[in-house]
UniProtKB/TrEMBL annotation:
Pfam families: AsnC_trans_reg, HTH_AsnC-type. This is Lrp/AsnC ligand binding domain-containing protein. The lineage of its organism: Bacteria, Pseudomonadati, Bacteroidota, Bacteroidia, Bacteroidales. The keyword DNA-binding applies. It comes from the Bacteria. Keywords: DNA-binding, Transcription, Transcription regulation. InterPro entries: AsnC-type_HTH_dom, Dimeric_a/b-barrel, Tscrpt_reg_AsnC-like, Tscrpt_reg_AsnC/Lrp_C, WH-like_DNA-bd_sf, WH_DNA-bd_sf. Residues 6-67 form the HTH asnC-type domain.
Length: 156
């Protein structure tokens, strides 16, 4: 994807939304000294360009019964089956991220499970049938922090 041409107002909007994605458009408009309509139009433009990809409500997985977070590296039997494997992974609701990677793994996923027994069930019953040569799993004890990328205007 080509880099979007953004101006100072776009960057100010992105900085604001990256710290509070629920901030009302009128508050953003006041901070930027422009109209609410201008903010609405700019946010629509940023979405159309693919800079903003919507908004989401972040749920604490442990608060809804998902106490185990695991990262699993896949070694595929047939690496040409990437797209097929991705489609099958989309059908497993506990899988929340899928990455194609360089290095030792063909793919790397993040998933949440209720506990280690549930994780083992997911691995044996849902992942093993995907055409994997083998996997390597890492269990996260605790997410220490997570944040948005810094939004800094590029003045090239």
């Amino acid at each position: 994807m080509a880099k979007a041409q953004l101006d100072s107002l776009d960057y100010k909007i992105l900085q604001t939304l990256s710290t509070n994605g629920r901030k009302p458009f009128l508050e953003i408009a006041r901070e930027c000294n422009v109209s609410g309509a201008a903010i609405h139009q700019r946010i629509q433009k940023l979405m159309a360009l693919g800079v903003l990809r919507g908004s989401e409500c972040l749920i604490n997985p442990a608060s809804v019964g998902y106490d185990t977070c695991a990262y699993i590296g896949f070694f595929l039997k047939d690496p040409s089956k990437f797209d097929e494997v991705v489609e099958k992974l989309k059908a497993i609701p506990e899988v929340v991220e899928v990455h194609f990677t360089t290095g030792q793994y063909d793919m790397f996923i993040k998933l949440y499970a209720r506990n280690n027994d549930h994780l083992l069930h997911i691995i044996h019953e849902q992942l093993q049938g995907l055409g994997l040569a083998r996997t390597e799993s890492l269990i996260s004890f605790k997410e220490v922090f997570k944040r948005q990328l810094p939004i800094v205007e590029n003045k090239e």
